[in-house]
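The instructor's notes for this session suggest beginning with a concrete chain rather than abstract definitions. Hand out the sequence below and ask the class to guess, before any prediction is shown, which regions might be ordered.
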Amino acid sequence: MPITLPRQRTVLERFPAGHPRGSWPADEYAAALRAQGTDARVVMDLDSDQFLVITDTVPQEASR
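After discussion, reveal the predicted structure:
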């Protein structure tokens, strides 16, 4: 039986869910990162009531 390990994710930025524009600021930030070549996406953290911009890759400055 194969063992599935949890994927390591890095939170790049946090945006409050109560923002008047909703998730748009997080979506725009993630789109700008994707345009620069970073695999970024937006998820909702229900516990903290925030939109998180995350990546499954480790940022280069953190891997040094």
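Then share the key points. The mean pLDDT is 87. The longest strand covers residues 10-16.
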